[in-house]
Amino acid sequence: MYAGWFALGMFVMHQAQAQPPSASGFPPPGEYRIDSESSMTSEAGMVSMKRVQRVDGATGQITVITTSSLPGEAPITTRYPGNGPVTRCVAATSSAPHTEMAPGLCDTTLTSSDSSGMSLSAMCSGTKQDESWHLVDKDIWEHQLLVVPRASAPAPTNSEVEQAMKPVYAELEKTIRTGPPEEAASAREQLKALRAHAPVAGGAPPFVTHLQERWTSVAHLLGAH
Fold first, then answer.
1. Which residue of 90, 179, 189, 194 sits 20 to 30 Å from the alpha carbon of 47, by its own alpha carbon?
2. Cβ burial, residue 7 (10 Å; 0-12/13-18/19+)
């Protein structure tokens, strides 16, 4: 699959849990509250779109802001009530909570790694991906992931473009059918713009994605209260 089109999916790939820190550069075992902000920006010709999602780790409330350069399009802000704190347990025996790069599609370089954090850079099929973890203080870690198109990347074929866009369209169509009215309206506009300005073979992937997370320790050992 053409990796550039799935950058946004990387925002929900952090299901893995972490290993002991020592010099690994990742959060140590324990329970963490996670506040996050993720954005997806796309440009096609004169049209640009941006979707920003903020999650309040204390309450779980989600705020989504969608903006478009299409004439007459006003920003759409949608808020969803939370179901309680957003937390994640980092176990001592599992793999680190970094983004898993697709085998065979990414050439990954670890640029730094010690007890205060780590950073890596990956050249993938169609994208450049930079990820970092940084220890802000003894109880707070900051995580960032940036995925940008590579201008010099090999151009996708028409079939690769078609296959890559299928899940994007399907997700938007699902939101239109089943989502709350405001979110459905936003998805409808995004789908309209994407189909009107769909990329063709030889074009660069239009999505630039950015994730920022703040992991705040709430229990140093699993099961602690």
1. 179
2. buried
**Region label for 93, one of left (φ > 0), alpha (ψ between -120 and 50) or beta (otherwise):** alpha
Q: Which two tokens stand for residue 208?
A: 């630039």
What's the pLDDT tens digit per position in 3-16?
A: 333 333 333 333 23
Residues forming beta bridges with residue 114, ordered by sequence position: 117
Closest CA to 197 of 46, 7, 40, 51: 46
pLDDT band at 171 (very low <50, low <70, confident <90, very high): confident
Is the distance from CB of 222 to CB of 17 less than 8 angstroms? no
Residues 93-109 as b/e (b if ≥16 CB within 10 A, e otherwise) read eeebbbbebeeeebeee
d(CA 164, CA 2): 6
Parse the chain into domains and list their residue ranges: 17-215
Mean pLDDT of 166-177: 80
Give the CA angle between residues 146, 46, 72 to the nearest 5°: 105
Entry pTM: 0.66
